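U., I forgot to send this yesterday:
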Amino acid sequence: MTTANALYDVPGPRTRKRHRLYGIVSTVVILGLLAWILYLLFDTDQFTYTKWMPFEYKGIQELLLRGLGNTLKAFGLAAVLSLALGTLLAVGRLSDHRPVRWLSTLVVEFFRAMPVLVMIFFIFVALKVQPLPALVAGLTLYNGSVLAEVFRSGVNSVERGQREAAFALGMRKTQVMSYVLVPQAVRAMLPAIISQLVVALKDTSLGYLITYEEFLHAGKLIASNLDYDLPFIPVVMVISPIYIGMCMLLSWFAGWVSRREQRSPKTEAVDVAPAEPGTLLPRVQ
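Result:
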């Protein structure tokens, strides 16, 4: 006998059987697609020693490690600056002063709508900025604007009564934000913040378009400048798992934070002293 849930009805025997069939068909299709891709790779001799030989050279390994280090450097700078810019713009959007609120809204909406690549190219070409600052600036402006909306939405998601109760106690707005709203909003904001940082990590690959020597640029140099039958596919097979692994690590961290924040706080047992005889209160006549 099935029981109803608040959001949906628990599927019955026929529905479960149909879902099981869908799962089997999907698995077969995915395995068939993977088998076809592997067949194409073997058929085009992508696993031959000649095409994988360049990765044995120390210079190639150092080039890839240097590119990975540059990618992490750009991501670290962009992440820190994006969080700072997002906080500043969120405070501006929550301000009681109308000019500050309008200016912050204009900045957020403009840079959220602007493509990241266009901003990076504009800073690099028009303003003649070096590749690393241009890449970091473009990522900061876009991700900072998105994070500003995340921060603002997180603060506004706190129950209105919390704000009103804090003001009723005589707190100033700064105290209400610092001690009441922000600590409660962090629980809702953390997964979205980390997910946006995953986007920033992936967008660091745009640096190769402005000649920034990041991880993808290093792979491009290996695939195009070596006379080893242009090992493009092996380079992709080396670089892609590393990119995917870093993004999955951040995504896993976001999920871990979300699960941890959703748990109810644990309470510890407190030792209570045994009752002792004391002075009795006088009886009220």
